[in-house]
Amino acid sequence: MEKYIIHGGHPLKGEVVISGAKNAIAAILPATVLADGPCILENVPNISDVHIFTEILKDMGADIQFINKSTLKIDTSGIKVPEVPYEQAKKMRASYYFLGALLGKFNCARVALPGGCDFGVRPIDLHLKGFQSLGAEYTLEYGMINVKTEQLRGNEVCFDGVSVGATINVMLAAVKAKGTTVIENAAKEPHIVDLANFLNSMGANIMGAGTDMIRIKGVDILHGTEYAVIPDQIEAGTYMVAAAATKGDVLVKNVIPKHLESITSKLIKMGVEVTEYDDSVRVKYVGKLERINVKTRPHPGFPTDMQPQMAVLLCLAEGTSVLTEDVWDSRFRYLDELRRMGADVSSVDGHVAIIEGIKSFTGAPVKAVDLRAGAAVVIAGLCAQGTTEVENIYHIERGYENIEEKLRGLGADIKKVVIPDKVMQTAI
Ligand code: UD1
């Protein structure tokens, strides 16, 4: 078992380079199934979710080569059986994107119901309704979702709620359907736009991505392409918050500042100095942090994937802040971990957290309960008095490339240690 040992109290200073976006590559890797030729992907983050995706593709018959550490060449022409078995799908929720991609390519797909971070109930009814609108039928048997059709046909798909995953899955299925698909109430996240740009670079005809109405004219053939993935908005936001929380001064490089606006504006309201450049932002602590209220919303609102990291910063503000989770039903499980570190937080009905400012965190043994919750306890550890030990760091490594090296480069005292399982058992 691995864990991070963090000795807190060092302000983060210097420069950090942001990697490619986890949630964009999570859609783009399955989308390569649709190409009739090889795809070269640049700015691919070196995170465990990418390793899982490439293993799934390889097991299906794809040929994948690493041209360098962030560039992949993928040839999916060897994929003949449109199926992702449970053993692989359970490792990652976004494996359900193979449903849309395989359906788009083969008119049928068989994918096990996914796993992923536990934020309460995570239905996929909107995905399945979307496939039905395009003329596909689905059945569920022994934990596998089967979708199939004679021929996908473009149609109007109007979602009852805004869903990133359903929007992406319908895009993947519709891109080669006969006729035009119009997705209404589409999600507008940066990775939706990135997927559309990737598919268009393969010869697709998608317009309107980034607005709530996406129009897709089906095409017969999608060719191979060369494409660079956008920088990770949430990784960038995490370092921005870490800079402010540790009273530091960090230049966050390789970002699209427009994607960070909702985070930037909250930091500025709290009294943090944020300067935007063309492809970087500088975040500087300049004095006491003001209390604010934060509510998560679909893009361009404040991202739910920054909610736990923001909670840490709100703990360090003067006064009472209210943090509302409006996207997921259950995303406050990590508050118990922050309480272990001295946070004064109460949660009302699972959607609202009332956060009273504290002088500082104190180090404690804690665990990463999921990916972003893991980032939050790391940030708390960086500004805590004393030593913090973070367990279950595999959650964090799903989405943050080289987090301890990047933090050490900014002056943090963090190291990863391997604890033999036997020692862990004795300790328990
Ligand atoms: C994606 C992100 C995740 C992020 C989330 C919201 C990826 C790989 N993951 O997850 O990090 O937290 O967007 O920004 O990109 N819903 C339904 N029915 C459905 C689908 C969703 O009711 O069929 C509900 C969900 O329960 C949730 C809300 O819609 O309350 C948003 O979910 P969605 O946008 O689909 O999230 P994901 O795509 O799973």
Q: Class by helix and strand content?
A: alpha/beta
- The CATH class designation of the largest domain is Alpha Beta
As a percent range, the share of strand residues is 25-35%
Low-confidence stretches: none
The Cα radius of gyration reads 22 Å
The CATH topology of the largest domain, please? UDP-n-acetylglucosamine1-carboxyvinyl-transferase, Chain
Based on Cα principal axes, name the global outline: globular
Write out the CATH superfamily name of the largest domain: Enolpyruvate transferase domain
Helix content: 25-40%
The first-to-last residue Cα distance is 13 Å
Condensed summary:
Helix 1 runs parallel beside helix 4, helix 8 packs parallel to helix 10 and helix 10 (307-315) runs parallel beside helix 12. It is built from 15 helices and 24 strands. Helix 12 links the parallel strand 22 (365-367) and strand 23.
Can you give keywords for this protein?
2 domains, UDP-n-acetylglucosamine1-carboxyvinyl-transferase, Chain, binds uridine-diphosphate-N-acetylglucosamine, 25% strand, 428 residues, four-stranded mixed beta sheet, 32% helix, 15 helices, alpha/beta
What does this structure look like?
With 428 residues, this protein is α/β, with parallel strands linked by helices. It has 2 domains: 2-19 and 231-427, Enolpyruvate transferase domain (UDP-n-acetylglucosamine1-carboxyvinyl-transferase, Chain, Alpha-beta prism); 22-228, Enolpyruvate transferase domain (UDP-n-acetylglucosamine1-carboxyvinyl-transferase, Chain). The chain contains 15 helices and 24 strands. It has helices spanning 22-31, 48-60, 86-89, 97-106, 125-133, 164-174, 190-201, 233-245, 261-269, 307-315, 335-340, 371-383, 394-397, 403-409, 421-427, and strands at residues 2-7, 13-17, 39-42, 63-68, 71-75, 83-84, 108-112, 137-141, 144-148, 156-158, 180-184, 205-207, 213-217, 226-228, 249-253, 273-276, 280-284, 294-295, 320-324, 344-348, 352-356, 365-367, 387-391, 413-418. The strands form 6 sheets. A 4-stranded mixed beta sheet has the order 22-23-1-24. A 4-stranded mixed beta sheet has the order 2-15-17-16. Strands 4-5-3-14 form a 4-stranded mixed beta sheet, covered by helices on one side. α12 (371-383) links the parallel β22 (365-367) and β23 (387-391). α4 (97-106) runs parallel beside α6 (164-174). The longest helix is centred in the N-terminal third of the chain and has 13 residues, at 48-60. It is globular, with a radius of gyration of 22 Å. The mean pLDDT is 94. The structure holds uridine-diphosphate-N-acetylglucosamine. Uridine-diphosphate-N-acetylglucosamine binds next to α1, α5 and α6.
